[in-house]
Design goal:
Elements lengths: L1 H17 L1 E14 L11 E8 L1 E13 L2 E20 L4 E23 L3 E17 L7 E3 L4 E13 L2 E10 L7 E3 L2 E3 L6 E10 L1
Antiparallel strand pairs: 1-3, 1-12, 2-4, 3-4, 4-5, 5-6, 6-8, 7-10, 8-9, 9-12, 10-11
């Protein structure tokens, strides 16, 4: 058993030593895809999704090339904003706009295949680590936040590597429903849809 583990470890080391490793920085924008939807069973309170704003993301990229195959882990800072329409008959709030902002540390690990030298296809899991958030919804009586510190999603798309430049277009899905951090008067709520977004970015390899 120990010999087998040693063989696998040595094989991985040799594989990584023979790989071409590149390090770079990436900067991009993202648009979150959310349909208008109302939270249900809130009595006199009505909370609905209005609009998801463009966000920015950027950070460090490590690309490990093994022939036509590649492994690309990344660590990216991401910010986003969502607007809500809120009506609260009991407290005199009528169709008011409330904003919610998020900052996450996104950690995608992509597996890819290179076609024709420049074009690559890639997909893989992504972890979202919540760094900070601010919400105007806290002004609503009975509202509390219960954010998960870590959530999972996935990304898939294609990219172009032209010299030291990299250009990417990706689609991201998530495994949790949007708004699962909502708590009103002790009850947990969430929308029926999971958050998704398109990401476009440009980067540079050193």
């Amino acid at each position: 058993m120990k010999k087998s583990i040693l063989v696998v470890f040595c094989s991985l080391c040799c594989l990584l030593l023979s790989a071409q490793v590149k390090v770079g920085l990436r900067l991009g924008v993202a648009t979150t895809s959310l349909n208008e939807e109302n939270l249900k069973n809130l009595n006199e309170l009505d909370v609905s999704l209005k609009d998801a704003k463009y966000g920015v993301n950027g950070g460090l990229v490590l690309q490990i090339n093994l022939g036509n195959f590649m492994i690309q882990p990344e660590v990216l800072f991401n910010s986003s904003q969502v607007d809500y329409n809120v009506s609260d008959v009991g407290n005199g709030i009528v169709d008011s706009l409330f904003k919610e902002k998020f900052q996450n540390l996104d950690i995608p690990v992509l597996l890819g295949y290179r076609l024709g030298g420049f074009l690559r296809l890639h997909a893989g899991p992504v972890g979202h680590v919540l760094i900070n958030n601010s919400s105007e919804l806290v002004d609503i009586p009975g509202y509390k936040e219960k954010f998960q510190s870590f959530t999972w999603g996935w990304q898939a798309g294609f990219g172009l590597d032209i010299g030291k430049l990299m250009i990417d277009l990706r689609y991201e899905g998530n495994f949790n429903n949007y708004g699962d951090h909502f708590e009103f008067f002790g009850d947990q709520y969430e929308f029926d849809q999971s958050p998704a977004r398109f990401l476009v970015s440009i980067g540079y390899f050193f």
